[in-house]
Amino acid sequence: MTRSHGHTRAGAALAALSLLATVWGANVAPPDDAHIDLYMDGLVVTPSGVSTLAPGAAQPYLGGTRVPAPSGTTSPDESEALTDLAAQESSWIASGTVPGAGTRFEPMATSALADLHAMLADDGTMVAALHPRWAYSWPRDNSFAAAAFARTGHPDEAVRVLAYLERVQAPDGSFEARYTLDGAGPPDDRAPQTDGTGWALWSLGQVLDTLDDVAARATAERLRPLLDRSTDRALALLANPSSLPPASPDYWEVDEKKLTLGTAAPLLAGLEAASDVYALLGEPDRATLVDDGAARLRAAIEREFGSRGYPRHVTGGPRDAATAFLLPPFVDEPLAGAVDAWRASVAQMQRPAGGLAPGGSWKKDGISWTPQTSLYALAAAAQGDRTAAEHWLGWIDEHRTASGAIPEKVLADGSPAAVAPLAWSASNVLLALATLED
C-alpha cells in the first residue's frame, strides 16, 4: 500500500512482571513456547509511497518520522526529496501534540503517531498492518485510530476515518468484520461483527469531545448517517426481554454461539456516547431514548455477566480483555464490580514475557499480544492507576522492533513477532499516554 492508494530483554521483562504480580496479585503458570516469525520490522515512507522493512532492520529515520535517512548511495536529488518529505511529516506531527512528550515514552509515542499517519490513506481507510494477511480495514481498528488522531490534535484525520466508517457501513447500521482496502467490501464470508457498531459510536463521541461545541455540532451533523444508523442498530439489537444483543464474533475473530462481553460492552460504550451526542445536537427526546437503552443494557450486563464475575461468555468461564471495556474511557462509570474483575483478569491473561493474551481461555502458547496489553495501559490510565499504566507502556516500549515499531505479538523469550506496526496497538499507546496527561 502506498500513500497514493488513499495516500533479548526477557530477563528484564520477567523482573517487571514479578513486580506487577505483587501489585496485582497475579500468578503466572509455566508456558508453552510457540514460535511465530517477525514478518516485518516497520515502515518506510518515501516520495514513492509506504513500504515495509525486513525483520531486524534497524532503519535510521529523519527527525522522528518514518522517512529514511539518506545513505552513502543516495543521490543528491533523492536526499533533497527525503529531507523535504521529512519536513512535511515533522510539520504534521508538530501541528498536533505528542502525548508523553518530555518523558521516556516520547520516542515511542512519536513513532506510533508517525506509523498511524503512514497507514492512513487519503480516503480515510486505515490498514491494520502492511502485510498481506493484515492488509484490510477493521471497523474496530479504525475507531481506535480516529480517537487517537483526535486526542493528538489531528481532527481532520480523525473525521476522515469516521467518514470512511460511514461510507462502508450497511444501511441497517451493521459492519462487516473487515473490508478490502479498495472499498469493494468484505474479503471473505466472515460474519459481520456487532462490536463495530458500538465502536463507531464510541469513537464518534471521543472525537467530538476534543472539539469546541460549534465544531462538535457541525461534525456530528456531517456524520449524522453514522450516528443515526449505528444508534438505531444498537437499540434494535436490544429490543428483546433480556435487553442483551445476540451472539456475534468480536475482537477474538472467531464464530460465537454464546454472547460475549466483547460484543455487549462496546454496544454499551457506543450508546452512552450517542446519548451525549444527541444532547449536544439539542435533541433531548432522542438523547433520553438512547440513554434508556444504555441503562437497560448496563443493568443486563451487570445482571448476566456481573453475577458471574464478568467472564468472556455470558454463561461463565474465564475472563478476557473485554473487562477493560466496562471501565472509562469506554463507559461513563465503571459497572458494578467491574474494576475488581478487570484487575483479577490479569492473572488469567499474563504471559511469560510480561504481556497479556486476549483472554484466560486463549491457547497457552506463551505469546503476549500488544493490542490487549496496550488496552490495559489505557484502562489503567483512565482509572488513575499510573503505576500500572506506566508498567504496561514500559513493557511495550521495551519490546518494540529494531526500527522502533510496536509489534502485534511478543514471544515467550521477549522477541517481537508477527507484524509491526499494528494500528490498534499504536492507537492504544497514544490514547493511554494522552489519558495520563488529563
UniProtKB/TrEMBL annotation:
Protein name (Swiss-Prot/TrEMBL): GH15 family glucan-1,4-alpha-glucosidase
Keyword set, alphabetical order: Signal
Domain of life (superkingdom): Bacteria
Any one GO BP annotation for this protein: carbohydrate metabolic process
GO molecular function: hydrolase activity, hydrolyzing O-glycosyl compounds
Matches recorded under Gene3D superfamilies: 1.50.10.10
Span of the signal peptide: 1-28
